[in-house]
């Protein structure tokens, strides 16, 4: 919340979304957020694709969304139990399509211009540091997504 508040005025007055763990967005809410944005940020537990339905995502057309930032792949005991219970009901192919590279490809096929995503499991603190670097470079300094990713790699 602190990071979003810090950069709120630099970008737009139209920040919109779901913050916190008080409610889980419905598939309709995910669709509304993705189709009505120019940039989408997911900062959460486990795999982003474990939160949305694969069949629903591949049927979407979201060319207005120029950038998706996925700061996911954070694991806690509770999130691991949730994902383990969820994965039991999925085919091996569906679980494989939830990996970072496959997720980026699926989002690209729906029309997203660029995807920035973590590739391996991390901590909430490390993702908070990444988010600070992303916002500072994208919003304060006006760097491109490619330039910002290069900075993150260092």
TrEMBL record:
<dbReference type="GO" id="GO:0060294">
    <property type="term" value="P:cilium movement involved in cell motility"/>
</dbReference>
<dbReference type="GO" id="GO:0035082">
    <property type="term" value="P:axoneme assembly"/>
</dbReference>
<protein>
    <submittedName>
        <fullName>CFA46 protein</fullName>
    </submittedName>
</protein>
<dbReference type="InterPro" id="IPR039586">
    <property type="entry name" value="CFAP46"/>
</dbReference>
